[in-house]
Every structure is written in structure tokens, then in C-alpha cells.
Amino acid sequence: MAKELTGKLLEIRDLKKSYTEPTGGVLPILDIPYFAMDRSEQVVLRGESGGGKTTLLHVISGLVPAESGSIQLEGVELSGFSEAKRDRIRAAKLGYVFQTFNLLPAFTALENVRLGMSFAGKKIDRERAKDLLERVGLADRMHYLPGQMSVGQQQRVSVARALANRPILLLADEPTANVDPANQDRIIELIARSCEEESVGLLLVTHSDAVASRFSRVERLEKINQATGNQATGFRGLSAGVGGVR
User: Which pTM does this prediction carry?
Assistant: First the structure.
């Protein structure tokens, strides 16, 4: 019998990240003494633009390194890993729903999901790719290119792709930012239901009260991120390499 894992799914301690302003000054973006979530838990971080939401997800996923602090995923310390090691962990353990979808335009919906599988270095499970697209309501759009689909359909493809490798944690960055209001509830319901069905933890960041209200645990980012007060007078338009400061 497999040993049941104990402890937190994600645990962050004393996490810090800052960027250099064009003037040469240092702009603190993240200063998080502690944050944690349990396995399969669904958590929303609610914060305004410029509060470090996207940067936090990028640091957790290893897209950008933290300056200091600890990030543990199922008890495994991620900080200090090489870029190549962070890439492997992200592909195998994490799913990511980007607000801009990040679908490859020359590949069909089905091919985009299969490519998501290939990043983890595992054998491509073609049936799972089809099943995921069917579950997000795109059985009749599998062979469509992104440009042939609506914005809402593209975001559903990105949800299927994020779940392709059976991640333990799904990171969702403003997943309704580019979706019209009529489809906003559908996308949020899809993400929440899919994570529940797959027993995947969900960390979703948003500025929307309407989105946050759909979840039982909602944290205000400024309550856990001590750097937010410093950002109010900082340079909000700073480009931060991957995604900027959001």
C-alpha cells in the first residue's frame, strides 16, 4: 500500500523578490513571511494590479528565481535548484493557466495539449489528451487551430493543457482577464471542477471580487505580502523579464 503523504502541498517562508527600476533603485515586489496550502485545496489570492500576483506565480513555478526564502512543494525544497531542474519540476508537478493562453498558433487544440505532455519527458497519452478536451467541452474543436476558436474556447484548451501531466498544483494567473463576462463564470467553474475531479490543488490569483467570491478560501495578497506598501509609490510599469510586475 502506498504511503500517504502528510504535511502541506505548498509552503512558503520568508520569500523575497525585487526588481531594479530604470532609475537604479530597488523595487521590492515580494516579501512573504509565510503562506501555505493543503493538498487538493483551492485558494484565491485577491490583489490589485502591481501587487506582485504574477511575479509570485512565476517564482513558485520556477520561471524566475527568488532572491531568498523557502518554497517547498510536498516537502521538497525548490529554492536553489538550477534552471533545468526547475523546468523539470514545473513540467512534472505543476500546471499553469496563463491569462494570455500561450497556445502555439500553428498547432491544433489536440496538438497543444499533447505538446504540454511532451514537456515532462513522458510518453504522450493520446487518449487522455482527447478526454481532457472532451471534458472542457471541446470534443468538436480538437482539430481547430487557436485562431479558429473563440477566446473562451482558447482558454478552455489552456486548462486542458495545464492538467495534461496530472499536476499536483495548478497555478492560474487571472484566467478570466481576457474572457468576456458571459464566459467568466464558465471558465472559473471549469477550473474549479477540473481540479476537484483530478484532486489537484489550485492557487488562483485575481483582482476580481466576482471571481474570488466563488471560492471558500480567499486571501488578500497585501495581507501576506509585506512589499505591497512599498509598491504604491514604485514604478508600476517596470518590465520584469517574464510577465512584468503584476
Answer: 0.87
